[in-house]
Amino acid sequence: MQPVALFLENKINMRLLWRTFAVLFACFLILSVALSAQLKRDAPPATPILGFSPAHAAAEHQVESSLQSIPAPEKAREWLRTLTAEPHPAASDRNNQLADFVADAWRKQGWEDITLRRYDVLHSRPRSVALEMIAPVAFTASLREDAYDIDPDTKNPAASSAYFGYSASGEVSAEVVYAHSGNPEDYDLLRKNGISVKSKIVLVRYSNPYSYRGFKALTAEREGAAALLIYSDPAEDGSARGKVFPDGPWGPDSHIQRGAITYDYIVPGDPTTPGWASVPGAKHIPAEEARSLPKIPALPLSWRDAKPLLENMNGPEAPKDWQGALPITYRFTGAVQAHVKVDMDTSMQPYTVVEARIRGSELPDEWVLLGNHRDAWVYGAVDPSSGTASMMELTRSLGELKQRGLRPRRTIVVCSWDGEEYALTGSTEWGEQFADELKKKLVAYLNVDESVAGAATTAGPEGLSFSPAAVASLAPMLVEASKDVRAPSRKSLYEAWRATSMRDSKANVPPLDSALVETRIGSGSDHTVFLNHLGRPVINLGFTGDYGVYHSMYDDYYWMSHIGDPTFQYHVALTRIWGVVALRLANADVLPFDFGFNAVALAQFLRELEQRNEIAPRRLKLKRLHARIAEFEKAGDLLRKSVARGLLAGSRSPEKMQRLNERLLRVESNWLDPAGIPGRPWFQHLLYSSRYTYAHLEFPGLTEAVEKQDWKLAGEQAVVLEKAVEKNTRLLKSAQSSWEKSK
Which residues of 503-533 are buried (b: 16+ CB within 10 A; e: fewer)? Predict the structure, then answer.
């Protein structure tokens, strides 16, 4: 073939080949597009999330999946071992070193604006303590806990002896009277039996029913007692409950529950700066004028040190429900004389709050706050260091997301509080210092005191109980979030939660979702200032189970790593649910408050108040308050449905969503009464407070007036509540109208 002909033939063949390839490629593209479209039609839509548009919910699920892949049990174990290496009570050198440790870790994790804030507060620690029985036989209490070879930390000489924070100093020799749990009704029974505790030493126990040790101190003081002793009976937290340390989760015979006896249910924080922050240079009132300081000396005891006092009494036998688990007959009094000496160093000391943040990408002036306290009575593996370990894993995880470019829409702030064990001090001072800013900017506070306060080794197949508490308006979003977190049992946290709730309540069927979250919130942890004083919504998170070494030396790394959470899976599960809730609040288009559910809870609170007190309508008319709450429920339900429709349609502008969020935050603020609860003006929330025992107290001003049968005050408090509910109903209606008017 001639060269020219051959060239032409090859050229024609190449054209045919390219044309065929182009046709095949076009068919491939058409088929790919069609297949992709079919897959999109067949794929299930992303699970919706309260407060998110469908597109943003899908993106949020991806972010949460990334977050949950980061926390690791071995890292949680490492954090806990470091945190519990030495005793670290408030104002100790070790606790201050841990403040620097936390701050340095947050810097390395990529957090921003790390700040150590100092507060000069009245602190309390022992110089010397002693207890002796001087009649009918001589006995000297050790006021110490036994060491165990298997646990080297129990041999550390830095572990303190028995003491109570803020006990008065004093020296008393007097007769000893057993007063059961030290509640007012116990003293009433003593009086009925002709026994006075005036100028005597009162011996009471932790506590059936439960009451905060500071309430026991105030009650003994009011009864005229000269001194107070509080011991741990094995019926409550010792051998009567099961195996004791180091073989099980319960307290051995020498375990001592330390603690503070501050009257922080009257006003928390530094006793000498009631209502304002104890920043350097702040005014301090004299200690003798402080309403929250006890006036009598007090000591905690192990049951081993209490037993000789009880078994040598020869007076009248106490009733059956006053008997404990010691192998003796419990008596009111008789023959026993004791000598108590308490010498406390009560002086100004610095407390340090460590603060950091990841600034929001779109709404930096709206804050989601996370917090846990750092100080412990001794090692504090459960309280608070399990919570601290989970927090450090959470900050590591959020820091890693930030490094990947996944910054939250709203600012996330994290704080390591100091002095919680003494009077909720660090969080209270910080909250008072930034009160005006927090009232405007704080979306919610998510608190973890203890992430794992129970023994996984004794929890059975269902595992530890997930035991959160939340303001009612945030309860539905917490239930929803639990469905997307895995529990150590490999079930969803939601499924595990339902199973343990059914087990713990001995029910035959799982609880309704509406009953899962505890919406009755007392005090005793760092949420108090944010909810009760600043009117900001709060959530408390944690796992619970068998736990009998509270505030003792045995609440240490050995207990947690061998008994509490040996795999550290519960630490990680807590980190995950904490992080998911934080991200949903930080990234939501519309803040996920459910005020319809909030109203349902309020109606229940009011019915319970009426049932407990059998209120006669002629004394107090609550029909109008019931009606106002029903109107609030209707407005809340209508707004929730309207918001859901708008988000699903994707028809609302960012500006409109922002205006709605501003209104939603005002609803929570409107529950504050600047006058406060009668007699306790620092506590200003109309819906939530605590009793002097730390127990929850709903409609506090109204409830306390009813229980005192002060019907005039009760009527006034009912009117205050009516006006607040009515104001918030108008706000919800206005918010719905504005949301629906324009797109």
Answer: beeeeeebeebeebbebebbbbbbbbbbbbb
Please tell me the distance from the alpha carbon of residue 668 to that of residue 684, in angstroms, as a whole number.
12
CB neighbours (10 Å) of residue 346? 17
Model confidence at 743, pLDDT cuts 50, 70, 90, reads low
- Cβ-based neighbours of 128, under 8 Å, separated by 6 or more: 341, 343
Half-sphere exposure of 283 (CA within 13 A, CB side): 4
HSE at residue 531, side-chain half, CA atoms within 13 A, is 30
* Residue 362 one-letter amino acid: E
The phi, psi pair for 202, rounded to 5°, reads: -100, 130
Please give the full DSSP string across 520-575, using - where no structure is assigned.
----SSTTHIIIIIT---EEE--EE-----TTSTTSSHHHIIIII-TT-HHHHHHH
Sign (positive or negative) of CA dihedral 562, 566, 572, 577: negative
Cis bond before residue 184 (omega within 30° of 0): no
Q: How big is the chain, counted in residues?
A: 743
CA–CA gap between residue 190 and residue 208 (Å, rounded): 17
What residue type is 696 in one-letter code? H
Mind listing the pLDDT tens digit for each residue in 386-417? 999 999 999 999 999 999 999 999 999 999 99
Whole-angstrom Cα distance, residue 736 to residue 743? Answer: 12
Q: Closest Cα to residue 546, out of 246, 326, 242?
A: 242
pLDDT value for 616: 78
Q: What count of other Cβ atoms lies within 10 Å of the Cβ of residue 276? A: 15
Answer whether 716's CB lies under 8 Å from 710's CB.
no
User: In the structure encoding, which two tokens stand for residue 422, read together?
Assistant: 């003494």
Residue 548 and residue 251 in contact, taking contact as beta carbons nearer than 8 Å: yes
| 543-544/465-466 β-pairing | antiparallel
Q: How far apart are CA 566 and CA 548, in angstroms?
A: 17
What span, in angstroms and rounded, lies between the C-alpha atoms of 482 and 493? 5
Cα distance between residue 368 and residue 510, in whole Å: 32
